[in-house]
């Protein structure tokens, strides 16, 4: 059994481990490690695969797509990137904004490759790419919302919602991450202990809150309202396909909830579209007691990346043309609308 399989079995049932291996392409080098020692790349890949599997469980349209267009066509997903939302605001025990995740991503081997202002959303997006396998290990697109740019009542609601936040990482986890950052690897038993805890970071860390606060947040920011109900769960996971326009047309013909248009980057090299967000049920507090309301959850995205021109700085002179792994602020803003549209 490979390190990757052993890691995944620490946080997923056996049938899920088999399923995700069948569904997702994994670079051969990530499946032939040294027994008993887990590299940062292996741990990063295991985390990404577990997060991808978790998102599939929350998005019915993605499950249908996987059954008919991936497994049904005997191909595998190339996991391009996962996205999560954070809020740069003090509250509870959780570090504010992206700091709650850079403490994981950097020891795992991810480095900041691009910053993308999203002024219409009053957010900032940042892309983290893996140093060892930049094209093969899925990137993280981490966005931060800036409450200071909203009204005072909005800021007060954010404070109340986040006040009960907990931090999933304990002292031993922090020590393991420091060791991983220093050595680039961990003994298998430490990695097996750390992975499930890291997965807990990609969830909602605060408790049930007032429906009145949710409605106040929703009036000014669909993105903050989403963070309030879903926390730091994967907002979406993205499948890298060869022709996103053809994929979108097929999904439309099948009657799946695909976005009306394909977003195209300023460079023309990055094309994206997505399913609309799944609808989920969440509890809220009211003076009369708890109530349940339907709200937007996560979604599944598709992306096509063209190669960089020969001679560009990011082009590898040995391996030849590389994909354009950058993001685009305009594309990101359009994709963010998938959750707003579902409210």
From TrEMBL:
Its cofactor is Fe(2+). Belongs to the 2-oxoadipate dioxygenase/decarboxylase family. Keywords: Dioxygenase, Iron, Oxidoreductase. Gene3D superfamilies: 3.10.180.50. The lineage of its organism: Bacteria, Pseudomonadati, Pseudomonadota, Betaproteobacteria, Burkholderiales. PANTHER family: 2-OXOADIPATE DIOXYGENASE_DECARBOXYLASE, CHLOROPLASTIC (PTHR31136:SF5), DUF1338 DOMAIN-CONTAINING PROTEIN (PTHR31136). This is 2-oxoadipate dioxygenase/decarboxylase. It holds the Pfam family HGLS. It is an enzyme of class 1 (oxidoreductase). Its EC number is 1.13.11.93. It comes from Polaromonas jejuensis.
